[in-house]
Design goal:
This protein is α+β, with helices and mostly antiparallel strands. Helix content is about 35%, strand content about 10%. It has a two-stranded antiparallel sheet. This is Putative ixodes 10 kDa peptide protein.
């Protein structure tokens, strides 16, 4: 059984995108990454990444709940 979560393989600071194992190149938000400069390792960037992950996880769970009502709740 394959994992529902894709793993990123690389990061392109010039475009602020991630290269994933699966198709697609998600773009990082501007408050986390500046095109051409990349991600600055600051507390603000770290918190922004945590908030991004939390928001995406919440969005995924809401979609699963709506589309798959018989899926066991975690």
């Amino acid at each position: 059984m394959s994992s529902a979560v894709a793993t990123f393989r690389d990061y392109y600071p010039s475009s602020c995108t991630l290269k994933c194992e699966r198709p697609g190149s998600p773009k990082l938000p501007r408050h986390i990454c500046t095109p051409g400069l990349g991600v600055e390792c600051t507390l603000r960037a770290r918190e922004g990444l945590r908030n991004l992950i939390d928001g995406l996880t919440k969005q995924k769970n809401e979609v699963l709940k709506k589309w798959c009502p018989f899926l066991p709740q975690k």
